[in-house]
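Page 42, continued from yesterday. The earlier attempt failed because a stray header line got pasted into the input along with the sequence. Redoing it now with the clean sequence only.
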Amino acid sequence: MYKKITGTFLDEITYDIASSNWGEREWANEFKTMSTAGIDTVIIIRAGLGEKVIFPSKSISSFRKIMPVYQDLASLFLKLSESNNMKLFFGLYDSNYFWYRNDWKKEVEINIAFIDEVWDKFGKYASFAGWYLPHETGDTSSRIIELNAHLAEYLRKISNLPILISPYFLGRVNVYEMLIHGEHASPRSVDEHVRQWEEIFENFRGLVDYCAFQDGTVNLLELENFVKATAKIAKDNGITLWSNVETFDRDVPIKFPPIDWRKLAYKIDVVQPYVDKLITFEFSHFLSPNSIWPSARNLFERYKEFLAMKDVS
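This time it went through. Structure tokens are written below.
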């Protein structure tokens, strides 16, 4: 059976995309829309970033000054997930500082207090189905192995719910590569990618359950080669591979419009043999008929037409 998109991130600690400025009414309507479209899993991409959090967090406010919280989105998303029969993966806190400076121990310390608070406050919800580790990298840099392994070990102790990561390929030249290699920057090859992720997956064995690479971080026509190679090393280490099918376009000067529907169709097509589930960053902004982007509404219509031609599971 052909796989459609059945999961989406919820990005309400907005970092590099515009806020929709939705309230409870709009979110309730959006969750119904997502459910009708076949979404059964939502992932809070991060419950906090720097000075911003999605609920009044005592652990983060004791660590640093935070912005006032005018709406408890964590409670709202969990309630809406329950009423729409969805599973919710809860994203942790990203200091946007310590781990970038290789101070992974401080990042872990802050998050352990945050995890305790989150589990105590929200663990009772039936929709609370897993955790998301929001510290994204494309290789072994930023002490990502130590950071995520320690967080996953702690999460296992308190809940034993499944854990998801969504890293990126270094399949195209990006800011990270330019900083490290300057004018000699070049995309990583499939073999280089495999060598890095064999080491990471070996360390994540028994800790991380699902991995969904961001598919827009490799040149479009190289995507299948990267996903096929990744599927093997993930399976070898007991990690189930998903695909983060990005519904925004990285290839245009504007940050970030909904993707051209033909690119979306291609990306969904080529990963079919290699992944168990398709999730997206991110339905509400880039694929929803309720989006603030008019072109997202058109993308949704093309997406439905595309699926109508497939034997969809």
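Notes: Residues 247 and 259 are 5 Å apart (CA to CA).
Reminder to self: strip header lines before submitting.
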